[in-house]
Structure formats: structure tokens, C-alpha cells
Design brief:
There is one protein chain. The chain is mainly alpha-helical. Helix content is 66%, strand content 0%. The chain has 14 helices and no strands. It is globular, with a radius of gyration of 19 Å. The mean pLDDT is 95.
Length: 228
């Protein structure tokens, strides 16, 4: 098996570790390896002995990211990838690991219903990062006519008040708006949507370069004055 721990140590940059630590408050064990280097290493592991690699427990932040990338991309069927995902979710305790893992996950066309059902079910956990995974994953892979209302309704129904869960929700809403502005507007107007999530969603929509100036002006009118 590739000596990935040696490669991580050799690729570590103390200054970048300090920078990353500021982006992920409270996260320890950061070596300071840049994302392109980790992605390159993940590809090497996938071509080598990825199954043995996945048997090892990650010892630092970069190894967690690496494990997520290998689970997301190694050649395996969907049921096995879901099983590995379930075991990996306990390692996801920050937005960066969550988001890189979700974006990399392979979604075969023939398994979309099974995959959607699994990730949607994570909303039932009541746990911050499982719910963020659910929202961000579906944002990355399932914002389409068949799923957009379900995604938005889950966000309306979500009562989690943890910051990174709420931020994931707002990010997902903004992407829904880019593709389905009229449908998303319906949900932004719903009384049940969390006020903070609504306003943060509006902020992110207004920051997007894929939204017209007229749309940005319109969504500003939906901003709520009370914040819970």
C-alpha cells in the first residue's frame, strides 16, 4: 500500500495549516496539505490498494479528507459505497470534510433513487453534520424537477439551530433558487422556514453571479425583520 502518511507529512505546509485552522475553528490535527495534493493522492490510492487503506483509521484532518475522497470515488457498487459512507459519517465534524466528500461522491444514473433515499434519510438523524451532508449532497447532485421541492421542504422542516447545519441549508436554498427561482420563492415565503436560514439564503442568492440584478432586487424584498 502507498505510504500515504509519509506523503502527507512531506506535503504539509505549516503556514497553510495555520490558515486552514482559522477556516475550521476547533478542528485539531491539521497538517496543512492543499486540496490538489490530497486529490492526487486519493487517485493514487484508488489505483493501488484502496480496500486496505479504508480499513485504517484516520489520524489527522487530512487523512479524514483522504478517506472521504477514496470512499466517494473508488470502484465499487452503490450499496458498498453507502455502507462505507455510513461508517464514515462519524468522522465528519466540519464543513470542509462534509463538502469535499459530498461533491466527489459518484452517483450512477441507474442508482439515483436508492442514493437519494439514503441521503434524504439522514435528515431524520437530528445530528448537525449528518443533516448538512444530506442537504449539501442533494444540492450537489439532485437539484432537479423531481427533487427540488422535497429538498426545500426538508429545509423548511429542519429545526436544527447549529450554525453549520443552518449554513448548509442556506447554501442549498441559494442553489435551488439559481435553478428554480419561482419554486424556491414559494418556500422562502413559507412561515415555517427558519428566519435566519431565510435571510442567509437571500444573502447567498444576492452574492451569486448566476442570479440577475432584477432577481437580487426581488429577493431582497423577502428579507425578514425578525430573526430567531
Amino acid at each position: 500500500m502507498i505510504d500515504y502518511r509519509r506523503i502527507i507529512e512531506e506535503s504539509a505546509e505549516p503556514d497553510y495549516a495555520e490558515f486552514t485552522s482559522k477556516l475550521i475553528p476547533g478542528k485539531t490535527g491539521i497538517k496543512g496539505v492543499r486540496a490538489p495534493a490530497l486529490k492526487k493522492l486519493a487517485k493514487q490510492i484508488v489505483k493501488d490498494d484502496w480496500e486496505d487503506f479504508l480499513e485504517e483509521e484516520p489520524l489527522c484532518y487530512e487523512e479524514e479528507l483522504l478517506k472521504g475522497l477514496v470512499i466517494a470515488t473508488a470502484p465499487m457498487d452503490t450499496e458498498r459505497r453507502i455502507a462505507y459512507t455510513e461508517s464514515f459519517l462519524g468522522h465528519i465534524d466540519n464543513w470542509a470534510t462534509c463538502d469535499s466528500f459530498c461533491a466527489a461522491w459518484k452517483v450512477p444514473e441507474g442508482d439515483r433513487d436508492r442514493i437519494y433515499g439514503y441521503f434524504a434519510s439522514l435528515m431524520d438523524s437530528g445530528e448537525c453534520y449528518r443533516m448538512r451532508v444530506s442537504m449539501v449532497f442533494r444540492m450537489d447532485h439532485f437539484i432537479d424537477e423531481g427533487h427540488v421541492r422535497d429538498i426545500l421542504q426538508d429545509i423548511v422542516d429542519c429545526t436544527c439551530e447549529e450554525y453549520y447545519c443552518r449554513m448548509g441549508a442556506a447554501w442549498a436554498v441559494s442553489f435551488c433558487y439559481i435553478k428554480f427561482p419561482d419554486i424556491t420563492t414559494e418556500y422562502l415565503r413559507m412561515e415555517g422556514m427558519d428566519d435566519w436560514v431565510c435571510n442567509k439564503s437571500i444573502q447567498k442568492i444576492r452574492e451569486s453571479y448566476r442570479v440577475t440584478d432584477a432577481q437580487k432586487e426581488f429577493v431582497r424584498s423577502l428579507k425578514r425583520t425578525r430573526i430567531n
